[in-house]
Design a protein that fits this description.
Layout lengths: L35 H10 L19 H44 L1
Length: 109
């Protein structure tokens, strides 16, 4: 025989709950439906609404917002390109001036 003979049922010691035990956790929030139909519709539900009519309420023609945004983008690009072109010209002029100064210093020796 191995071990002590078993004559009674095994009892586990009971420990009363501690003062430091945590309160039960709140219930989990409701999980969003993730069925294939819902996922397919997700991209179509959040589309932008058209812009409001421009001008007076008598004039109910809608503006083409994409053309307006494209025109603004092109104007911004022109402005930024003009700045970078001026910076490049200034940098080239400074480089040439430094080259001439170095050349004059080398010729004096």
């Amino acid at each position: 025989m191995y071990g002590a003979p078993v004559t009674q049922a095994m009892e586990l010691p009971y420990s009363p709950p501690s003062q430091f035990s945590q309160a039960p956790l709140p219930e989990m929030a409701e999980i969003k439906d993730a069925s294939t139909g819902t996922l397919r519709l997700e991209g179509t539900l959040a589309k932008r609404l058209p812009n409001m009519p421009s001008g007076d309420l008598n004039d109910l023609s809608f503006t083409n917002s994409k053309q307006v945004e494209a025109a603004e983008l092109m104007n911004d690009m022109r402005y930024v390109y003009d700045i970078s072109r001026k910076q490049a010209a200034r940098s080239k002029a400074i480089s040439k001036a430094k080259g001439r100064q170095t050349q004059r210093a080398a010729e004096r020796r």
